[in-house]
Amino acid sequence: MSSLWCRKNEYHPRGMCLPMLFRHNHIPTNTILLITENVFYMKIYPICHRIPERTFKIKGYYFPVCSRCTGIYTGAIIYYILVYFFYVEYDLYLILIAALMVIPTFIDGFTQFLGYRESNNQIRFISGFFAGLGIAILVKAFKIFILTWHFTI
Question: What is the pTM of this model?
Answer without folding.
Answer: 0.67
